[in-house]
Amino acid sequence: MNNDLLERLLILRSPRIGPVSYNNLLEKFGSPAAVVEHLGVTDDFRDSVLREIDVANKMNIQFISDSDALYPARLREIKNHPPIITARGNVDTLRKKCVGIVGTRHATASGMGFVSDLANAFAKHGICVVSGMAMGTDTAAHNGALRADGNANTIAVLAGGVDNIWPLENERLYYEILEHGVVISEMPVGFSPKATNFVQRNRLIAAIADTVIISEADSNSGSMRTADFAMQYGRKIYAIPSHPADSRSVGPNSLIRSGVATLCQGADDFFEKNKKEKKDEKKSESENPILDKLGTIPLSESVLAEIVKKSVSEIKRELVVLELQGLVQKQDNGYVRL
Fold it and tell me: Which of 10, 77, 196, 283 lies deepest, with the highest CB count within 10 Å?
């Protein structure tokens, strides 16, 4: 048994003690052992912390203190960071440079596709994608990173204990992340998340990342809180614009308009190779005017006909061919490019 770990956990697991009071107590009394003696912890409380350590050992969960080389370097920089985090999976992932990608749980199909491709590009360039494993945008970010070859591609920051799969719909994703990345939390093993814990989770995402990207998000969403934290920590913020008629556009569009965030149009904003490839693609475009005009915003047949100066019947015939080729997809209000 690591007595230092036990003593530090006894302090942290004590009621009403967070990072601020933890640090104050250590400064005042000089050592974890002296703080524990001051707190006068009961045998029952000590046993409960020992049980947590035992469960963690059985589940291959590691306790990582801020003095450990594995502790995320960027997280260590922020004031009042968690003195100890728990990690399950490939802990070497925590050594990597990270980008945070977050957004609404109720993301559009095109929004999730964009995020997934963006996350995949980061992972392919050796940059770890960190998100919160929520449905929608977070799921798309993790899945995009997991599509890249190799391991250590993504970090999921949970609001509950690292053994607590939340939401349950992401159980498969959780185990994929354990295999090809890592799940972390500042909460005790076995802890079930409460509403306030999700704000704390967002704080960690912003702190761990070098850059934070905001996708579709309402104005008062958790993603916007992540952007607030990113601003406080001096992180570079990007935002993916959305259609102004959609309430999910308010968050990212307002960040761009206010100058807080830089417009994100894709992976070529971050990687020189992608910029070159995009230029090469333009040089060798299909010369199909319909395909060239389609993007992630659906366009109707009549609008396409007006743009490319063809009849609606011609547009319909060409769209059928492009759809069969897997190059476009029909949605309720038009077509998008795949």
Answer: 10
